[in-house]
Amino acid sequence: MSATTQPGSPLPTLTLDGEQVEFAPGETLYEVARRHQTQIPTLCYDPRLEPFGSCRLCAVEVEGARAPVASCTTVAVAGMKVCTVTPQLEQHRRTLLEMVASENRQVDVDPLSGSASQELKTLVDRYGARTGRFAGAHSGHSKTEDDNPFILRDYDQCISCYRCVRVCAEQEGDHAIDIANRGFHSQITTEFDQLLKNSSCTFCGQCVQTCPTGALSDRKALRAAPLPEPIEKTRTTCPYCGVGCSMDILTKGEKMVGIQPAMDGPANLGALCVKGQFAYDFVQHRERLKTPLVRGEDGQLHPASWDEALDRAADGFRKASERHGRHSIFGIASGRAPNEAAYAMQKFIRAGYGTHHIDNCSRA
Length: 364
Ligand code: SF4
Ligand code: SF4
Ligand code: FES
Known about the structure:
It is a single chain. The chain has helices spanning about 30-35, 85-105, 120-125, 165-170, 205-210, 220, 275-280, 305-325, 340-355, and strands at about 15, 20, 60, 70, 80-85, 150-155, 175-180, 185-190, 215-220, 230-235, 245-250, 255-260, 295, 300-305, 330-335, 360. The protein is of the alpha+beta class. A five-stranded mixed sheet has the order 2-1-5-3-4, covered by helices on one side. One iron/sulfur cluster binds near residues 172, 176, 204 and 207.
């Protein structure tokens, strides 16, 4: 049996629930099963992260193995015979879910909490798992004193799946959070147990969006939880820089209430920065500019036509150049502008004013 294959040779196969299927060398059993539309439950799995194998929910039976194996960490081998659904596996999964659900104060959390926040609830419902079956000690203490404006840290809800820790390290490269202690004393924490704002956290929100229980949740979006309208999602592209991250705008009625990153966004794969994730208040801000303003002789800003505003700007550029020289002009193009507009902008600055002082907001 071998997991490697020569170029041009047929792909290796294994038996998945009685059916012979091909797999690519290096694929895990979970990945093979998912490609074949087999629904194996997971909690600690995030396709963007290195498999971790902590929840054991994805266990499958492999012929010849003494005990079920975690499919997310087991690499497929040619000739394997794998069963993903048996009465024993389903009972095992239900019991595991009842253990984590018994520990958590609440399973049914608001979907505004985060992108993956419904995962535990969905599985508890799917397996009819009882939430109070295993009364006893609880792990995780909420950090209610962490009064940052973006992230709620309610570790009473934590199931120690480490997705937040791994996404922070592997996706964000930040290592702002880690796990301290073991067993019932396990706790997600920052260096020296600091508040997030005093740690190396950049408030990118990725930990919030991968948390499957709402233990980490979007404090800003949750302000809209009492609004009665249903949540609607609209796929769009972040307007801030040139990367072009895909995101879903969350609205309730006419109100924009939050943002969730698109896990399948080709440029960002579920990642956003703090601006894309949380800095959206400008969209519906009462002082948002809707028309050009020019300063009148009274020193105040007044609404103006675009022609009037552009004439005034041109006059200002010309005067600055005459008074202080051509290098007093600096142009910053929008990182979201198409190539043609970026080309026109650098011509405008270079040919129009004779300076190389030109950049774009993706770098500035
Ligand atoms: S917000 Fe981002 S940087 Fe901060 S802990 Fe979460 S993943 Fe890490
Ligand atoms: S806070 Fe959420 S993502 Fe992090 S370990 Fe706990 S349950 Fe998992
Ligand atoms: S999803 Fe495989 S062990 Fe958690």
